[in-house]
Write a structure and sequence with these properties.
Elements: H1 7-18, E1 33-37, H2 45-48, E2 56-60, H3 68-80, E3 85-91, H4 101-112, H5 127-140, E4 149-155, E5 162-167
Parallel strand pairs: 1-2, 1-3, 3-4
Antiparallel strand pairs: 4-5
């Protein structure tokens, strides 16, 4: 295995391990929360929600979309890891908003030198509507209990405030 280019990461991990404090932490979501949010670096899920390690199960992907894999993880979190409520949290000034799939595919194709045709990058035309659609995907899942509370939220990357857009 070639670890060239990762020396800084391995050094930081070595320092982290010297004071590692999560050994023995339960795999259960202590606060019963599952979160789907974006990969954007301006989002600090634990801090913005007042959580500590072990409080929630956090799934991150571009645009905070409820993809097949996100849904798989949510089903596992609900049935095996103590999640009883799920928040889908998108954010302001997201790169996935304001562009079509074709525009994103073209840009990636130019940057990579390979065709991105056939890829669905799941862009977001309207955040409110997308949150409603993604919550409906969760609710329609036959493996998702009706008792699970759902909310769609938008996090403002300029103020740090979180706004509930919709409950399901």
């Amino acid at each position: 295995m070639n670890d060239a280019g990762f020396d800084d990461i391995l050094a930081a991990n070595s320092e982290y391990a010297e004071t590692f404090r999560l050994s023995g932490l339960s795999p259960q979501a202590a606060r019963g929360l599952g979160v789907v949010t974006c990969i954007d670096s301006r989002i600090e899920p634990l801090a913005m929600l007042g959580l500590a390690p072990g409080d929630a199960k956090i799934i991150r992907n571009a645009g905070a979309r409820v993809t097949d894999d996100a849904l798989r993880s949510l089903v596992l979190a609900v049935h095996l890891l103590g999640v009883s409520r799920i928040a889908v949290i998108q954010h302001t000034r997201c790169r996935m908003t304001g562009a079509t799939n074709a525009e994103i595919s073209d840009e990636i194709g130019r940057r990579s030198g390979s065709s991105a045709d056939g890829w669905n990058f799941r862009p977001i035309a309207n955040q409110h509507d997308t949150l409603i659609e993604d919550l409906a995907v969760i609710r329609a899942c036959s493996l998702m209990p009706e008792t699970v509370a759902l909310a769609g939220m938008i996090y403002d990357v300029d103020t740090g405030l979180l706004h509930i857009e919709t409950n399901a």
